[in-house]
Amino acid sequence: MISNADYFQGKQDKESELAPTIQGLRDALEQAQSKLRMNSVFLSHRQCRIEQLEKQVYLAGHWLCPKCKFYLVSTNLHVPSGGFSANKEPQACANGCGPMWRVTHEQSANNTVDRCDKMQDVIFAAREALLQSHCPHADSNIAMIPARKIGNAINALETAGP
Ligand SMILES: [Zn+2]
């Protein structure tokens, strides 16, 4: 039978024995909490930086379907102020293909170059068509051809297709 005095003495001995371990655990917990706070601040700064970089990489509100190449420019109208802003919410393709992808500035620039190349091809084809159609002014300088005739030739080419 253990007396009360022995019980309490034994309990104090155990507590004294475990005190360094408990203090060590408290210190480790404080260090971990301090690291967690620092990592949280660091993470918050990284997220801000990611948002800044995304604005530089992606065209806000521009979406492209990877399957059918449907291109969407989505904007929000703010009725109270009458202002507009880019709609950054993910969009689904209007043709039912699924989710659309965000458009980067590089993709947009490449698309512009491709469209310019295509338009240049149409202009050269129109010039060729005019030269072959016995246009009296087409033999020396395309600038001498009336704009109406070039427009008609381009329309004819676009109607005829590639
Ligand atoms: Zn699509």
Can you give me a brief rundown of this structure?
By secondary structure, this protein is of the alpha+beta class. It contains 3 helices and 5 strands; from the N terminus they run αβββββαα.
Question: How is this fold's topology laid out?
Answer:
Blueprint: H1 4-57, E1 58-64, E2 71-73, E3 75-78, E4 83-86, E5 101-104, H2 105-132, H3 147-160
Helix pairs in contact: 2-3
Account of the 3D structure:
Helix 2 crosses helix 3. This protein has a domain at 104-162. Strand 3 and strand 4 (83-86) form a beta hairpin. The chain is of the alpha+beta class. The termini are far apart. It has a 3-stranded antiparallel sheet. A two-stranded antiparallel sheet has the order 3-4. The radius of gyration is 36 Å and the shape is rod-shaped. The model has no long low-confidence stretch (mean pLDDT 85). 59% of the residues lie in helices and 14% in strands. Bound molecules: zinc ion. The site of zinc ion has 7 residues, from loops.
